[in-house]
Amino acid sequence: MHKKKDKLMRLLKINKEQLITSLFIGLCLIGYVFFPANGNFQYKAVALVFLVLLPFLYNKYMLKRENIFKRVIIGDWKENIKWLAIGLSFAFLVITLIFVSSDLRSHYFLSSAVKNDFKQFLLYELLGVSFTVAIYELFFRGFVMFYFSSFLGKWVILGQFLFFAAMALIFGLPYWFYITYLVFTPFAGWIAYKSNSILYSFFGQLLFIIIVDAVFIALAVK
Fold first, then answer.
1. What DSSP string runs through the chain?
2. At what angle do helices 179-195 and 77-101 cross, to 10 degrees?
3. How would residue 190 be classed by pLDDT, with cut points 50, 70 and 90?
4. What are 71-115's pLDDT values in tens digits?
């Protein structure tokens, strides 16, 4: 009897923790999207606060779980690069299917400066895109996915993708602008889950976006 009661109490504690953590995640996203910011520097500062600093503090002092930055590990690099390569291959297949079956080419957004100046392209990819990818990996995979993976197992890969897609829909984020993130999110989750690291999902997503951007610039020139 006491064992059943203890088990029930632990279950209720976990469910309460999951509910509070889910609300915290929602508040972080609301802050990230709607907190007033003006200019690139302020937008980056807001992202760092709501998607990195607050989750880091919550994870450390409230959940008392492993530091999210400890997921930036090399591990078995040969095996993990294999997962990265497989994820990239499927992501390129998906974006190709979307390209041939939709008007993605006419909607895909890149500024004229990035399209016409190779230096600007490099700055945009290596500073702008890499920053966003790093922030998203730390939050969506390092914090959200690896927290819920202990409850959902492999289903967390699908869950984190649906979560990201729902966020884009609810907050009205421009679909065509986030298409590369949407396409790669399920594969980023799969790579991170298989490698137990966000390092490989980060490089996978960054490489995917850089190549897709370069291809669309090349197509625009023709």
1. -HHHHHHHHHHHHHHHHHHHHHHHHHHHHHHHHHS---SHHHHHHHHHIIIIIHHHHIIIIII----GGGG----SHHHHHHHHHHHHHHHHHHHHHHHHHSSHHHH----HHHHH-HHHHHHIIIIIIHHHHHHHIIIIIIIIIHHHHHHHTTHHHHHHHHHHHHHHHHTT--TTTSHHHHHHHHHHHHHHHHHT-SHHHHHHHHHHHHHHHHHHHHHHH-
2. 160
3. very high
4. 888 888 899 999 999 999 999 999 999 988 888 777 777 888 888
Q: CA torsion 14→16→22→23, rounded to 10°?
A: -160
> What pLDDT was estimated at residue 103?
81
Q: Is the pLDDT of residue 2 over 70?
A: no
CB 18 within 8 A of CB 27: no
Instruction: State pTM to two decimals.
Output: 0.88
Distance, in Å, from the CA atom of 32 to the CA atom of 42, rounded to the nearest integer, reads: 11
Q: Considering only CA atoms, give the Rg of the chain.
A: 19
**Nearest-angstrom CA–CA distance, 91 and 185:** 9
Q: What is the pLDDT of residues 142-178, one digit of tens each?
A: 999 999 998 888 999 999 999 998 888 887 777 777 8
What tokens were used for 203? 């490089």
- The residue range of the domain holding 179 is 2-221
**Domains of the chain: total:** 1
